[in-house]
Structures are given as C-alpha cells and as structure tokens.
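note to self: the first set is below, dont mix up w the second
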Amino acid sequence: MKRLLFILFCLFSFTSLFSQSLTELEQAKLLKEQGEINAAIDMYKEFIKQNDKNIELYLYISDCYFLIGDDKEAEKYLKKAEKVSPNDYKIKVTLYFLYEQTNQSNKKEKLLKKLLSELKANNSDIIALGNEFIVRKHWAEAKMVFLKGRELIYDNTAYTWQLSNIFMQEGDYSNIAKEYFTQLENNPKTLKQIQTNISGLFANNQDISPVIEKEWTVYWKKNKNNPYFAQFGIWLYNQTKQYEKSFELAKLIDEKFENNVGTTMLSFGEDMLNSNNTDYALKSANYMLKKGKDSPFYQKSKTLSLTLTYKQFLSKFEKTEKDFISLETDFDNFFNEFSCSKEAFEVMLQRAEFLAFYRNKAQDAVDFLEQNINKGFSTNQRGEIKLLLAKIYNRYGDMWQASLYCSQVEQDCKNSYLADEAKLLKARFSYYNNEIEWALSQFKALRSSTTKLIANDAMSYSILIEENIDQDSSYNGVKLYAKAEREIEYNNLKLAETYLDSINSSYLYHPLFDDVLFLRAKISLYKNDFIKAKDYLNEILNKYPYELTADDALYMLSDIYINHLNEKALAKDILEKIILDYPNSIYVIEARKHLKKL
C-alpha cells in the first residue's frame, strides 16, 4: 500500500512539474512575441540546464539570438543541438537557413555540399531532408536532394510527385510533364493519378496544355507500343477539345492493342455522349456497329446509337411526322432484337417517355413499363421506372396512382436519393395541380434534404410561392405560372405561353413578371431561338436587376453567348458582372471557371 501511494505521489509530482514547465515554456514564448527577447533567452537557458536533450529548446533559443542579431550564439546553439541529435535534418536545414539569412554564403554552400555528399541511399532520410527544404519553400535545394536521391537508389522514377510539385512552384511545366511521362513509361498503373494531377494543373492554367501536349508527343514517339500512352493521348485531346485526334487514337488502340474488340472506342463514344458532343458520339457508335452482331459490344453500340438518335430528336423544335414514325420504329426494332434487361434500361425509359409525352400513347407506355418492371432490375432501377410511371399518370390526370408510385419509391428506396426525389415529385404534382399551400409545406420540408440538387429545387419552389402571392393573399398568379411550368415539362410549349400571357393580361403589375420573362426565355431556348431568349433575359436585367431571377438570367445569358452566339467578349463581361455585382450568387464559382477558360 505504501509503495502504491509512493508511485501515485511521484506521478502527481511529475504531472505538476510538467504542467509548471509547460506553463513557463509558454511564458517564454509569450515574452519572445512581446519583444522581451533577452528575458526569453534567460528562461530557455534555465530549461536547457534542466533538460539538455530537448532539441526544441535549442531551436527556440537559437531563434531568439537570431532576432537580436547575435548570429554566433544562434549558430552555437544549433551546433549543440546537432551534437545531441546528429541525424535530425530539421536542425541541419535550420542552420542552413541561418547562414542564408545572415549572408554567410560560404558556410551555406559548404553545408549544402556536405548534406548532399553524406546523404545515404535511405528513402526515409532522402524524403526527410527534401521535405525540410520544401517546408521552407527552398525549391532549388529540395530539387537537388531528390535528384541526388534518385542517383543513390538507382531509380529514375523515384520522387516523381515531390519533384513535380517543386517544378509546379517554379512554373516549369515542361519538366512536370517529363516527370509524369517517365513515370508512365515505367508504371502504367499511375495513368489515373497522372490524369488527375494534370487536370488540376489545367484548372489553374489552361494555357499550359500546349506544353503538356508537346512533351506527350515526344514520349509517344518512343512508346508507340505502349497503350497507356495512347490512352493518355485520348484523355488529353478530349481535355483540349481536339476530338478528331481522340477518335483517331481510339481507332488505333482498337486495331493495334484490343484486337478490334472496341472497348476504348465504346468508352470514347459514351464520354462524348455524356459531354453532349453528339457528332463524335455518333461516329463512335457507327464505327462500333460496323463490327456486326458478333461484337461483344453490339448491344451497347446499338444502345449508344439509339440514345443519340433520341437526343437529336429532342433537340429538334420542328419535328415532322416522319421523325416520329422513324424513332418509334427504331425503338420497336431495338426491343424486338433485345430483351428489357439491365443493359437496355436507359433505352427502356426513353421509349416509355417518347410514347407517353410525344406520341400520346400513354397507355402503351404504362403497359410497357409495368410488364417489364420485375425483369431483374435493381431496387433503384425499379424506383426510376416507378417515378416515370408517376409522371405519366399525373400527366394524364390520375393523381392518385401517381402519388401511389411515389410513395412506393419512398418506401423501397429509403437510403437512396430517389426517396427524396419521390417526395419532391409529389410536391411538384400538387404544385402543378394548384394545391399550392400543401405543395409549399412539402417544399419547405425538403429544403433540408441531404441531396443538394433536391434541396435547391425545394428552396426555389418555396421562394417562388412565398414571394409571389397576389395582393388579395391568393395564389391565382402562382397557379397560372404553375400550369405554364407543367405544360413546358410535358412539351406543350404553346399552351405554356398561353398561361404566361394570362398572367401578363390579368395584372397591371405582379411580382411574377420577372419569372414570366425567365420562363419565356427558357421556352425560346427549347425552340432554339437564341436571339429571342437573349432579348427576354436582357429585359429582366434592365427592368428587374434586384430580383432573384437576375443572376439566373446572367448565367443563362453567358451560356447563350458562349455556346450558341459565339460572343466570347460579351460572355466575359456577363461573367464578371455575376462575380462583382452578385457575390452571393450560386453561380459565382462556375462563373469564375468559365472566365478562366475564356
């Protein structure tokens, strides 16, 4: 018992001493910060007497002597620290830094030479010394360490990531590319990492792409039998929008490395589809379809081709009866050839959407989906089918069945974004059907959704309803506006415009007027009438610059100038206006990105 009490007493005493020492150390640091350097030095000297093995104390006191201009004492304490811990690179680099700051160039150069000559073929030592220089932003010295390290361990791919970071600080993009491509020559698995790193470089400075491309061309000539260099080339050309070169490289990979199977070409086509580059997506699909039915990617190629055909159909405002019949035949032929399986899931949804909203064959669409919903699809895929069924039923007036399908998705997909999407869809159905107050309560509840897009949509609808109540506290204007939105969603643009006309004709003024203009601009975009869309958006900016639609109008206008009217200078002015005049806008980050590209 006595022994136990003694141990506890010792532990308590040690803790008290440690706390006291720590408090005094903090006092010494405070004295130094307040300019009482000599007082801090006296305290550090006392600490060193008590614990002459503590390296940090030597560094602290050396720094104090440096601050009062006593370089010799600063150097003396660093050398004492070296004797205590001869392998500590932090001390050595601090000494180097002291020589540099005190203009002792001979000592500085001599120490650097010694550090490099004594460096051993030990990976941890090389990294430790290099990183000490990096911490102090001494890029040239760090570079010398890592290059020396490569020589010592006989590996010209070692320290690629450290050296590329140093080259980036120096703005030496040519050497960054050489580092990466040397790494790719020896370690093909680094392809994704290299693409990620170079993508980060492009985000900061798009002008460096010619430098990267030039170095890749040099390495590609030496590595014609390395498919990873070809894969990188496709990625690089896609980044720089040189799609014809990407396509030719995909063909080369297919013929030379993939035995005409087409894996890379199909991936290229899908990438083009996802980036809305329909021309090259179609080239890819046609190339794949020429391989015939024996190709392992035949169905995927047909899927890509039909998806593109549907996308082109949607983008046409003036659709002829021939267009409708041709697309319906394409869908029928596809499902005569292939079953409704997971591989055909997207085309299955497209066919049902086409029948319900473009061919007035809602019952055919419903029958098609309900007959196939249980054919091996995942829970989330069944959820997507049910949400489409809900839209179809709501479109044709069966609100009860639409809500039932939404409720099933909420229950079946609890842990998926689809659950919140189903709740949002139910709220929108109520909004479209003029149950405005109930819809508002649902939108408010969804503003805390974990899915950002759904939360933003719910917030937008909430604000729209709350900010646009009629003077008599009714929702008559909002009800007309909701009907217009509903008809746009279901592709009845003329009827939508009729409802918008009703708002303008029913009121001398209404807070919805700016929203009406914005919706008219959207309709004009659906019609590919970019000039009219531009005029509506400019009217918002002239008449309602302080309304919530103003930054939306600016962002849409910048997109029109960039992608449709080729007015880059005007787009630049618009993007700058978003950043300067609407700093709290959700578009600020995207505006900065587009501005950098411009």
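second set (the one i keep forgetting abt)
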Amino acid sequence: MMKNSTSRIWITMMTIVLLLTSIPNTAMGYPIKLAQEERYLSGIMASNQSYFHIPSYWNVESTTISLDYTATQLTRENESSVTLYVNGTPFHSFRPIIEGNKKQTLKVTIPTHLLVKGPNLLTIEGSIRTIEDRLVCSEDEWRDNWFHVYQSTVVDVNYSLRPHDGTIKDFSERFVGMDTMNSSNNVIVVPQNSEHAELEAATHVISGYSKADVFKDHPLLLQPYTSGTLPNKPYVVIVSLRKDLPPVIENQLSKQDWSKTAVIQVVNNGAGQVLVVTSDDPTLLVKAGRLLANSEMVKQLDSGLKIVNESTDVNTRDVAIHRTMKLTETGDKLVGPYHQEHRYFITLPANRAIADASMISLDFRYAKNLDFDRSLVTILVDDKPIGSKRLNEDLADNDSLTLPIPKNINIAGNFSITVAFDLELKSNYCIRNESQMPWAFVTTDSLLKLNTKDNTDLLFDNYPYPFLRDGNFNHVAVVLPKERDGAIYESVSNVFSLLGQYAEGNKGEIHFYNDDESSDQWSDKNIIAIGGYTNNSLIRGNNDKLYFRYDPNGHGFLSNEKMSIESRYGTRIGALQLMESPYHSGRALLAITGSKSEYSLLASKLISGEKNRWKVWGDAVVADKDGNVSAFRFKQQAEAEPEGIFDNVIARPDLLGFLVAAVLVLLLVLLSLLLMIRKYRNKRGGNNES
C-alpha cells in the first residue's frame, strides 16, 4: 500500500515537471506606434519627439525601433547623419540611405537600461546636408533639407508579465493595458436583463477605465452573462447585485453585512482574474461604480478588497474649468543650432473652447553664444503662431514672454502649445565648437492660464455636449428596449467609452430606464435612446420628429430632403440623430437607431472613440456595413448672439477684479466728497449764527 502511494506521488511530481517544462516561453512582443500621422524634419538640423509607453507590469527583455524613412534626394550621404535619443540619451547614429524616393527601414535595438516605466521620450535628430562643404561657407537651401518619418515607424517591445499581486490597483492597470486592450482580453459584464442600478454602476466603471486607457484606440466591451457563466477572458469586471452573482464568484467574497456595504474585490476564475463590484443595496452598488470612476483613488487601492459604505467618500475633486497649469513639471532643454522646438499637449473637453483672458507665460533661459540679431523664440497654439520675441544677451539667464491666446484662433477640445527657438550662431556651421553648442531651457515657472466656455449648439461638432458639462455627466437618461440583446449592451459601452474619456469628474447623473416606463421619469433630462422603431417606444413615439424617419411599419428609413434612400438600403443602415428633446426645452435627445439592434450598434461605433470622430458632424449621421458614412446638418444656422457686457465681465476674473477695485475707489471718493460738503455746510451755518 505504501509502495503504491509512493508511486502515485512520483507520477504526480513527474507530471507536474513535464507540464511546467512544456509551458511555452511567456515572452511576448508588442509593436507600439509612435505617431498617427506622417512627420517631416526640415532644415539643416531638426528634431522630432514622440512618446511610447511601458506599463509597470511588463518585464522588458528587449526593445527595437523599426524606423521607416526617406530623405531628400539631394542628401550628401557622407556628410549627413541622423541620431536617435531615448529619454535624452543618444543610442544610435546613422547616415541615411538614398535610393530615389524608396522607403528605407532601419532596425536598431534600444538599450533596455535607458527605458523607464510609463512614458518614454524618443527623439529623432537629423543633420541633412545638400551642398558640398567647401572651404568657403555656403548655406544649405532649407526647402531642400527634409527627412520624412513614416507613421508605420514602431517600437517593438519583447516582454514578459510580472506576477499578479492581487491588488485592485494592479488589476485595473492590466485591465486597460495596451496589450490587454489590443487583444480584447478584457470585458465588463452585467446580468442578463440587468436592473437599472447594475447598468448605472457599469457605466461609471466604463467611464473610469476609459480615462485610464493610455491609447484610447478601442472601446471597452459590456456584455450580459447568462446561466452563471462568465466570459473566458483573462480580465473580467462583473457589476451585479449579489443575488445575481454566479455561485463560484459569490463563494470567494469576504463576509459582509450586504445591506449596508458594497465591495470591490479581486477573485480568481480559472486562468483569469475577476474584479467583483457587488452589494445588496442598489445605491451602494452605484457608489462603488463611482469609486472606480475616480482614477486617482483607484491608483491608491493597494489591496484586493475595498469596502464601500454610506460614509465612504468616492467623489473626484471639483473640475477646474478656469485653471492655471504648469507647462512642464521638470523643465525642458533644447540643444542645437537653428530651429528647435518642444510641444506640449493640453487636454480639454471637446465641447469647451478657449475663452477671453487665456494666456501663456513662458519662462526660459538660453546660451550667450548666439547671434542675437537673428535668434528668437516663437509660441504656437495648434501650429498657429501667436507671438515671437527676439532673444537678448542681457536677459539670457532669466527671460520671459507672456502672450494672450487670441480669441479668433477658435480652439476647442484638445490642443497643443509649441515653443520654438531659432538659435542662430554668428559663425554658422562652418566653424562650430561643440562644447559651446547653443541651447535653450524652458523652466518649471512656465504657466498656462486657461479660461474656457461651453459650445452649446446641439451639433456633433460640440459632442459630448450636452451629455457632459464642465467635465461631469449632465442629467443623462439612457432609454433602452425592455428586451435587450448583446448588441444593445455593446452600444451602451461604445457610447460611454468615449463619454468616459472626456468625463473629468464622477459626480454627474446617469440613470437608465426601460422604454415602456413613463416618460415623466426622463422628461427633464438629456436623453440617449438606443434601439429601433419596433423595440423602443420612445423612438417610435417620436418618429415624426426624427431627421431620418421610419416607414409606417418601422422596417427602415425613408428618404428626406438631404438623402435619397432605397427601401432595402434603408433597412440596413444605422443613424445618429441629435435634436432638442421633445419633452423639455433646453434638453437634448440623441437617437442611436436602426431597424435592428445590429444597425444601432453600427451607428454607436461612430461615437465610440476619437478615431471616427472626424466623420461625425452636423446633427444627423448615417452609416452602413460597407463603411460609408454620411453626415448632415438639418438645423438652420443660428446667428451668433452678441455677448453682453455682463457676460464678458464674468468670463474675465482679471477685469472683474479691476472693476470691483474701481467701484470701491469711486465709492470712497463719493463718500469723501459728501463728508467735505457736510463739513463745509456746517461751517457756513456756524458763521451765519455769529
């Protein structure tokens, strides 16, 4: 008997060893695109900067850049060079290969010790010569000096995954990691026929994780689960009232008084991890969802369990619409002669535009070996110059430039600020002392004072207004068919994936309703209606108000003044329609609709991420399965109402402060005059009596 037991133990051990040795190498590769557009370096010496992100849960084993480029056909190959830097350290230089206009590819290993967790700065610096370097100095023709970097340039990272540490913070970072998102290895699930609180909590979760996604290329996926079976994915978030949880999940939860608490807890499910958000109380379930919409707080959850009760503070900080922000936290150095620039990206909700009294205050210093008759600094906003200043030797150690952002520059949503230095040397490049290479440094005292205002026209150009206002959800009501399939759930996640990227706070309202409920419940809200004529009574009841209306049977869309629609084609398209709410003046209705839920899903994909936003404008958009997208404007162009004096004063805190001070001075002057008049009268009265 003992012999048999010993044999079984040895067999088990050998089996484990064989299994472990048969596990394939877990090293994985991931190509990171450096830019979404083509880039050009122009001039004798020029540079371009881009960032790539290394998640903290990657163990990087090797990194290679595949640089796709072409250079001007006039390049003198023996005199031209390009240098690559990572985080400010050079690691490779080469002479560009010229074969007509043929694209070249250079593959170079990036030293691993130069990389950091999080964002890494890659700089491509080129010195392209087109004229023979004779004894007599001759200047290159700037228009001929170009180096083209293709958008296909990538950084290939080979890595393995760090072991899970079981914390909510670690799970959350992996859940929206670029490798996870690209492989669709994550999903958020709710019970089939979800209750309103479960959907509301899930949309807050989508909002929070959408903000945390680094690249924001893929919308998050929301799915229903049935029969207690969860999707077979490495990372799953389940949002559910406890009564609807699968037993295998519920049995792993810590014991709680579920009527007074909600939990966010990491548990295991086979080969994957599950983040459970649950409670018996619908209000607390929503509150737990709001906590996961607070990205700052999620980064602090370094355990596998978070208990949420009535007293738990989950709110984000107040969203600052008028704010002063630093351009750089550490300072930025620009080195080399001629044109050098550094770009700063500023995030702003798409529905907000730069208002009066916004300004840039640049604090900087620079070398003293410049030709100060020709050297200058220029500030550009979205590549539009707003002002320049000539550099001065007397101010080289402490110079500054303050410029207002012009009102007519028409900036809304995210934008960039470029600080460009033209660092000219008196000797040009014929006599160059490398130890005295010109430089400029942008200090941490450089500030952006940003005042913004809402763009309030009901147009997709201003989306996500009115569903977001001042960075928070703005009285949102989502009306869904009572009977919902997977396409309806996915449409919801598409909509809130993009809204979540813009939502800076978690204090706004989101409520869900079935289409058969009383319209009184959503009449004073901004409505998002998903579905078609046959399965959503709200859309059916307001068919006569839609820009693209259904035929009397609700089978498909009819032609209108903007578009001729063939009857069969009308049954195979989806539409986005943004209009004033038929229930309440000043509120909006967004209909995401099609004859079947698959076509509603098709329409929702147009507003699931930034990559399709350029196709969506006006107030009605139609899409088909072949990728054809048509946008229209039905509302008449409204004349811009002139801003009143009071509105202008309120929008400018500096002017408001000046006016308050002026009024106080005026009151003091008037009071002094009154006292003097009274004193003079009393004096005259006394003289008369005598």
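remember for set 2: The chain has five domains: 28-161, 168-308, 323-430+437-450, 460-632, 661-690.
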